Amino acid sequence: MSIFFNADEVFSMAIMIEENGARFYRKAAETFIESKINKLLLALAKDEDKHKAIFSAMLRDYKESEKSVRYEAEDELLADYLKAFSDKNIFRDDVDPADILT
Asked: How many whole angstroms separate alpha carbon 95 and alpha carbon 41?
């Protein structure tokens, strides 16, 4: 079975994944008292913030282009699906970084 996403959905998922990553790294940084590790994790969180800004700009530019496929932003089912897909892949929201990094 194949699942196809349009560009709006792909950008939206990318943004959510970057948000999840930044949250993961910041939470992980709280776990470590070692300055070197803490700084590394916070730097990774900042990188995720930068990636989110890039994807957000790409989404904005795409929506302003004539190629954009319009859909109802209020479609809660779609929004819930994209969030669930993003939260359960890459940076899972049900995993405590302390449990896997210590």
From this structure: 16
CA atoms within 13 A on the CB side of 2: 2
**Is the CB of residue 69 less than 8 Å from the CB of residue 10?**
no
Per residue in 2-27, pLDDT (tens digit) is 666 778 888 888 999 999 999 999 99
* Domain residue ranges in the chain: 7-101
Residue at 100: amino acid letter? I
CA angle 8, 9, 14 (to 5 degrees): 100
Q: Give the span between the Cα atoms of 12 and 86, in whole angstroms.
A: 9
Q: Is 89 left (phi over 0), alpha (psi -120 to 50) or beta?
A: beta
Q: What is the reported pTM?
A: 0.71
For residue 90, which of 25, 42, 26, 43 has the smallest C-alpha distance? 25
